[in-house]
Amino acid sequence: MVGEILPVALPLLLPAFADNWRATFALWAAPIVVIAVLTFVMAPRDGAAAIDQVSGRWWPDWPAWDVWRLGLIFGGVGPLYFGANAFLPGYLSEAGRADLISPALTALNLGQLPASFLLIAFSRRFESRAWPFILASLVGISGIGAIIATASALTIVSAAVVGFAAGAAFALGLTLPPLLSRQEEVARVAAAMFTISYASTVVVSLICGALWDITASARAAFLPIVVAILLPIALIPTIRFHRDSRVGA
């Protein structure tokens, strides 16, 4: 999250590279290479015994519907964050308020941090419950509605609200694989959930762009985002969070 916040909160590199966004994009991605190298060098080498205990299966030992349900729940979160980041600048430019782009994006990304700290502080109250996920989704929808209804300082506040909701829903979504599956299944369940969710996020983003092109209105690009957020609201109540009813247990 900090990596998402810094590039928009500190737009100092763009002027240094003669407004070449490609160069700044590559530079901000450089820490990923450093992290990869450090992980390779510093990772413990005594995990052979643990590796022997891991199954060779690549697909979770779950019914397909349960895997897809998790993927679609988490997939409803992605468009809220990525879609807002992608289409908020275009909307503000269309509204003649390009001056709000940087502060609005900063608020959108910075808004995730308070949600994370709140969930850490009250994790036991939020864990294994459907209502926090539903509440975060509803707050996200309200934030999107406020964004497209304004083009002022209120847009910045609304963007922060969307960031808060997206951060909360994202963190809650990450808890689903370990809460709902056996220990040896967590990695496979998480991988399947990420594959489905990020693929659906890309599809929703394409629909957003297509709708913008068809209607010639940046506001229309936010409609598929709202529809996508309805998926967690509809699906999360169907999950049983009791530990003794874990799938595959």
Task: Please outline the helices and strands.
Elements: H1 2-9, H2 13-16, H3 21-42, H4 48-52, H5 64-75, H6 78-94, H7 101-110, H8 112-121, H9 123-126, H10 131-148, H11 153-174, H12 176-180, H13 186-215, H14 223-235
Helix pairs in contact: 1-7, 5-13, 5-14, 6-7, 6-10, 6-11, 6-13, 6-14, 7-11, 8-11, 10-11, 10-14, 13-14
How would you characterize the overall build of this protein?
The protein has 14 helices and no strands. 35% of the residues are buried. The model has no long low-confidence stretch (mean pLDDT 84). With 249 residues, it is mostly helical.
Looking at this protein, list some descriptive labels.
globular; single chain; mainly alpha; 2 domains; Growth Hormone, Chain: A; 249 residues
Care to give the gist of this entry?
The chain is mainly alpha-helical.
State the end-to-end distance: 33 Å
Low-confidence stretches: none
Beta strand count? 0
CATH class of the largest domain equals: Mainly Alpha
Instruction: Estimate the global geometry from the Cα principal axes.
Output: globular
Instruction: Estimate the helix proportion, in percent.
Output: over 70%
Give the count of structural domains.
Answer: 2
Number of helices: 14
Give the strand content: under 5%
Q: What is the H level of CATH, i.e. the homologous superfamily of the largest domain?
A: MFS general substrate transporter like domains
Structural class: mainly alpha
Task: Please name the CATH topology of the largest domain.
Answer: Growth Hormone, Chain: A
Order of helices and strands: HHHHHHHHHHHHHH
Oligomeric state of shown chains: single chain
Average pLDDT over all residues: 84
The radius of gyration over CA amounts to: 20 Å
Known CATH architecture of the largest domain: Up-down Bundle
